[in-house]
Amino acid sequence: MRRITRIATVGVASAALALSATACGGKSSSDAGTASDGAKAAIAYDIGGKGDQSFNDAAYAGLAKAEKDLDIKGTDSEPTDGEGDADKVQRLTDLARAGNNPVIGVGFAYAPAIKKVAPKFPKVSFGIIDDSSVTDKNIANMVFNEEQGSYLAGVAAAKTTKTKTVGFIGGVETPLIKKFQAGFEQGVKATDPSVKVLSQYLTQPPNFDGFSKPDLGKAAAQGQLDKKADVVYHAAGLAGFGAIEATATAGKWAIGVDSDQYAQKGLAKYKDKILTSVTKDVSDAVYNLIKSVKDGKPESGEIRYGLAQDGVGLADSNPAYTKMTDVVTAVEKAKKDIIDGKITVKTTP
Fold first, then answer.
1. For 104-115, what is the mean pLDDT?
2. What residues form DSSP beta bridges with 170?
3. Mean pLDDT of 126-143
4. Exposed / middle / buried, residue 313 (Cβ in 10 Å: 0-12, 13-18, 19+)
5. For the chain, how are helix, strand and coil distributed in percent, rounded to 5?
6. Cis (ω within 30 of 0) for the bond into 319?
């Protein structure tokens, strides 16, 4: 069976190091040498920074691939703790002035900053992941059908649970994360209406700690485990590390997000209990934008990645998952039905 997603994975630092980097902020360059033609590209991380074992690391994988394949010099820039839009404006401005093209904001939180900065650098392409509200001729909006991948996770969870109780943990209650919740709940109920779904969020905007603090994810998962959940799916960035730790330690199944978390070195201790992950091909999105600029035909406007484009999917790296033939069959059927238009997945709970 071929892997459902094409997303790349990279070795990453431990969660503790990631939290330290987030707190310190600042910019860092990758290990690649200077590109032969001076071409440069930059990514500015979302909350949690590099080492989140998830969303940001997927973006870094795309940058690293571009460095290797396209002979460009990559720069990645960390967020500061509790930063505001003005900090993001300054970061993007600095990256653009340094000659990076494209400059990519990893996450919807960069929308206000890109709206301000992009018009000032009309010859620079700006990319933003998970947002399509800010548009201009030099802005590429890289968006995903997260609800579709989450539906497949719901199917897998409903087919796997023994207690008829599963959990969803969202980092912060935003429209984006509600797409994950909606798809997961729909997939569960469509597969087995008798399965109970426990859904909760770690924080509410403007508090975004739910994407960065593993202790919050750990406590939430423990609460769901205490209520008999035996499959827990998180969409919580670095905070999801704690959810996976608690779930795996209890001997129950965890479902990861964004990257194939079974393959992340920082989560190796828990990999055997990471059933699968809902992946977003953020890696390819970043790589494709960089390549388009390098080729002189920069992408712009909305670029959508769904199941039909292999832009979202369900990872099958864990041998334990692939041995569950009834689960795999159900997931594959659901995937085909979504692509064929037989199933329309909700984007709100």
1. 96
2. 201, 235
3. 97
4. buried
5. 45, 20, 35
6. no
